[in-house]
Design brief:
heterodimer, A: about 500 residues, mainly alpha, B: about 475 residues, about 0% strand
Chain lengths: ~500, ~475
């Protein structure tokens, strides 16, 4: 009884805080620290990112993947701390977009929202696309055609949409389960690879001199992409703030914990994969997903199939979590009429507290994006075999998300005073400035590297999008944003809530 | 100590005091109960069933398994209803006591204890056999003693740790079965199934195979023994029973079909590890699969052992709490609130059993005591439900009760027929009944505590208002 009463009181406080920030509570609050951690951990998903992109540039004697992983990990912790601080001040869905609105001005906010949306759409699409490739390779099709990939991709998106439509509680349960799947999967792969990959563990690979021999630009950048893509997208914690209880406390801890634990487990996985790589280094290099080759060679046909099933489950939940977040971002932008036809996208159904039209929009856009990337170069027939699609999509998403982080960090740097006045439960006071600076420099560095290196199809897609957005902005949004939409006051919001019958 | 003969009014305060002094801590949820249920019975899938194929042939054994699965589904319904109605640590003892009186309640409890103990001993023997496949030099007795010691300590530490531990180990066991399925999926052929002797002894064969088919599902009532430790028993116990019986039925029948379709059954007639033999035959070059399978299968067997030890220690605790067994067995550890004396003593008896007897005998005995206990529980169920029969109750309830009566009589017939077939075990049954009977009538019945929850329940009439 006491627990239920205090929970209700907490829900009321959260709703009031949201009203102060200018929005009505339309989604359902039910997540705690662990569920928040679970969603962010599922989106980061070491099993997804590392398995997809491992081995796309390495080889030889040095084990520099591990070093780059920890290096990227340290810098990502800086970003995580900065974003956690900001999220503790303003716990709203649509995370990065809203913060840029508050800390900067409307126009930059809208731009950032669009960039973030593109990044997240590409992230979700990339995860599901990689899952299709992995699934096909697991069942023997090492070089799939575009048609097969598209069909499988659409099926996966359909299943994820259906699960999303069942409500946030189902998604939460699936994500909580996925934490267990990830942890067990990583440990199982690690133990199996170490035990069965040969007589001894070669620790000399980790020696620094060996590592420095192998470091040069073409080798390092794909590894950087792998680490950067995997360890990003933790503003998922912030995007579900309106569904967390006591988000000022829940969201920052969920975010930081997820990054920290992902770094640890990612390191374990890379170490194991590295040991396996030594054994298979000379055989079938370059065809298909390298880590799957390692696993099936070392573990034999039966156990590798079993492990692959676990990985498929982990990837599926990762895609589901990513879709959840993308939908929240669409919902947040359309709440402020930022997208065409916003009236449709911002509708939240009373039945399951989900914005179902946004979910549909998200799914359709993922398919369109994949189509665009698939057909942007090479032959255009459906029977063709696409090459290196995955790095393209992942670099697109990395650029999008990191750019959005960069912009919000810049606004935070310029508006430090506001953060310190509005600070929430998690606040870093004076050190926060330094951490912000480092985080900002790091995100801009990653963006520039990605843009310089992966410059074919990706840049064309980006240019096309920029042109589209530019036009939309010039003819339509500029006028909208000029007249700053006054946030409704608290009493007006209360009236609306009473009218709608929300208690 | 209140005497059973003087009917003293027991107030709520005294019940609460009793509960704080003798109660167990509530910490399990629905998923934990699924883990307890599946984990307890999963050992039956890994060994023990193959002793019954010899007498009944391939198809005969599958038919026996189907019959037993059907029976267990009804039994699950019975048990879940009874567990919700009487959520006490005594489980079957509480049901028997409420419906059939002191002596039969005690007998039900003792049958449960013997069933769990024999099953636990059989599983321990098979664990030591599996273990000796990897490390042949360690003696069996050391392995057995070490395993019992490990689980006694885990149980004494606390049920919550045991709950999560059980869940993880159960998942390992299911993974072992998944590896078995994937490993044999390449060589399945219907011809292998149909080309073997199908019904060796006809109906007699099927009847003779029933104890070994029952071994698949034995100890699923471990869930009801954990009833006093679950949060919100009404919904969680139903969820636990239904989810675990469906999982196990699907896994068992799938496993049987695959095992028979993969290799002719003469390869695994008398081994202690049939699944490992099949895997070895089907994928002889896949070392990794075999080692991983054995390691995970060991954890499956350990999960069952853990569930069984949990079960019989709770049963001993509740019988002793009510006075039928010596009082010292129900002392609770002051900090962790677990019945440590019951756990230790039962463990010692279990070790003795596993050293003295062999696996086939123990499997048979576990099944027989289980049959006895199910018979008594179904009869108690019928009696308890009959009180709800009034003028207004529909045809459904009457049909259901009639069906249950038929079920109970079938059980009785099967028990008698089994003894006709396995005549060599009759003497042991006589010994069991005489020892328990003597203990009860000479010592136990004088010391029954009437403030134990099961006793209080047995004396209250429920008034239902429609």
């Amino acid at each position: 009884m006491r627990f239920i009463n205090s929970r209700n009181k907490q829900l009321q406080e959260d709703r009031q805080k949201l009203r102060q920030l200018g929005y009505i509570q339309e989604l359902e609050r039910s997540m705690g620290v662990f569920s928040n951690f679970a969603i962010s951990f599922s989106v980061i998903s070491v099993l997804t990112g590392l398995i997809f992109l491992y081995g796309s540039g390495s080889g030889g004697k040095g084990e520099f993947e591990l070093y780059i992983w920890f290096l990227v990990g340290v810098f990502q912790m800086f970003i995580a701390f900065s974003l956690a601080e900001i999220s503790s001040c303003y716990p709203i869905a649509g995370g990065v977009y809203e913060w840029t609105n508050i800390l900067g001005n409307n126009k930059i906010g809208w731009l950032n929202g669009c960039i973030s949306l593109i990044g997240w759409l590409a992230c979700t699409a990339g995860i599901n696309f990689g899952l299709s490739e992995f699934f096909l390779q697991m069942n023997g099709v090492v070089t799939p055609t575009k048609l097969e990939l598209l069909v499988l991709f659409s099926t996966i998106i359909l299943i994820q949409t259906v699960i999303s439509l069942l409500g946030i509680k189902t998604t939460t349960k699936v994500n909580n389960l996925s934490v267990g799947i990830h942890i067990i999967g990583v440990i199982a792969i690690f133990i199996l690879l170490i035990v069965f990959s040969g007589p001894s563990i070669s620790m000399e690979r980790l020696a620094f001199s060996n590592v420095m021999e192998n470091v040069n630009i073409p080798n390092t950048i794909p590894v950087l992409l792998m680490a950067a893509w995997t360890l990003t997208a933790f503003d998922a914690s912030a995007s579900v703030s309106e569904e967390c209880i006591n988000p000022t406390r829940t969201v920052p801890y969920g975010m930081i914990l997820s990054v920290l634990i992902s770094i640890i487990f990612g390191g374990i996985l890379i170490f194991g994969l590295g040991q396996g790589n030594v054994v298979v280094a000379n055989a079938n290099y370059g065809t298909g997903i390298q880590s799957l080759n390692i696993i099936s060679t070392i573990m034999g046909p039966t156990v590798s199939k079993f492990v692959s099933m676990i990985i498929v489950m982990a990837m599926f939940t990762c895609g589901l979590a990513a879709q959840t977040v993308t939908v929240r971002i669409i919902y947040a932008i359309s709440r402020n009429n930022g997208l065409p036809f916003s009236k449709i996208w911002k509708n939240v159904q009373k039945l399951n507290a989900m914005p179902i039209y946004s979910i549909a929009l998200c799914s359709i856009f993922e398919i369109l994006l994949i189509l665009a990337v698939l057909f942007s170069e090479g032959e255009n027939s459906l029977r063709a075999i696409p090459m290196k699609t995955l790095p393209k999509i992942t670099s697109l998403s990395t650029v999008g998300i990191y750019l959005s982080y960069g912009i919000v960090l810049l606004c935070a740097l310029r508006n430090r005073k506001k953060i310190e006045t509005d600070h929430g439960v998690f606040s870093m006071r004076k050190i926060g400035y330094g951490i912000n600076v480092v985080a900002f420099i790091w995100s801009i560095a990653v963006v520039c590297t990605m843009l310089m290196y992966y410059n074919t199809g990706v840049t064309m897609v980006y240019v096309a999008l920029l042109v589209a957005f530019g036009l939309y902005y010039w003819f339509y949004m500029k006028n909208q944003l000029e007249f700053r939409y006054e946030k409704l006051s608290e009493t007006e919001l209360l009236e609306i809530e009473n009218m709608r019958g929300i208690d | 100590m209140t005497n059973y003969k003087h009917d003293i009014l027991i107030t709520q305060r005294e019940i609460d005091e009793f509960h704080t002094q003798f109660g167990l801590r509530r910490s399990l949820s629905g998923v934990h109960l699924w883990g307890v249920g599946v984990g307890s019975v999963i050992a039956g899938t890994f060994f023990g069933w193959n002793y019954g194929v010899e007498v009944s042939g391939a198809m005969g054994f599958i038919v026996a398994t189907l019959i037993v699965s059907l029976f267990y589904i009804f039994l699950t319904v019975v048990f879940s209803e009874l567990s919700i109605l009487l959520p006490y640590a005594g489980g079957p003892y509480a049901y028997g006591r409420k419906a059939l009186g002191s002596y039969l309640g005690y007998l039900t409890g003792m049958a449960t204890i013997m069933e769990f103990m024999c099953a636990a001993a059989a599983v321990t023997i098979s664990i030591s056999m599996y273990f000796s496949q990897i490390y042949p030099t360690i003696s069996h007795i050391h392995v057995i003693a070490f395993i019992y010691f490990l689980f006694v300590v885990t149980d004494i530490i606390g049920i919550k740790h045991s709950g999560i531990f059980q869940l993880i180990i159960t998942c390992f066991a299911i993974s072992a079965l998944a590896i078995f399925f994937i490993g044999t999926s390449g060589v399945l052929k219907i011809e292998t199934l149909t080309s073997q002797p199908m019904f060796i002894n006809g109906i007699n064969g099927i009847l003779a195979a029933i104890p070994f088919a029952m071994w698949f599902y034995i100890c699923i009532e471990g869930i009801s023994l954990a009833a006093e430790e679950t949060i919100n028993p009404e919904s969680n116990i139903v969820y636990g029973f239904i989810s675990s019986i469906s999982t196990v039925v699907i896994l068992n029948i799938g496993m049987l079909l695959m095992a028979f379709s993969a290799v002719p059954f003469k390869y695994f007639l008398n081994t202690d590890s049939p699944l490992a033999s099949i895997l070895l035959k089907v994928q002889p070059n896949d070392n990794v699969a075999l080692i991983v399978f054995i390691v995970l299968a060991l954890s499956g067997l350990l999960a069952s052992l853990h569930g069984m030890m949990n079960g019989f220690s709770r049963e001993v605790f509740s019988l002793s709490r009510a006075g039928y067994l010596p009082q010292f067995l129900s002392t609770l550890h002051p900090i962790t609130k677990t019945p440590y004396m019951a756990i230790i003593i039962s463990g010692l008896i279990g070790i003795t059993l596993s050293v003295v007897a062999d696996a086939k005998t123990l499997v048979f005995w576990a099944s027989f005591f289980a049959l006895l206990m199910y018979f008594l529980v179904v009869v108690s169920y019928i009696k308890i439900k009959c009180k709800e029969l009034g003028k207004d109750s529909g045809i459904g309830l009457k049909l259901w009760l009639g069906f249950m009566t038929i079920l109970a009589s079938l059980l009785l017939i099967i028990m008698i027929l089994i003894f006709v077939r396995y005549r060599q075990y009759v003497m042991f049954a006589v010994v069991f009944f005489s020892i328990t009977g003597f203990y009860y009538f000479l010592i136990g019945s004088k010391y029954i505590r009437s403030d134990a929850p099961e006793e209080i329940e047995a004396r209250t009439e429920r008034i239902s208002i429609y």
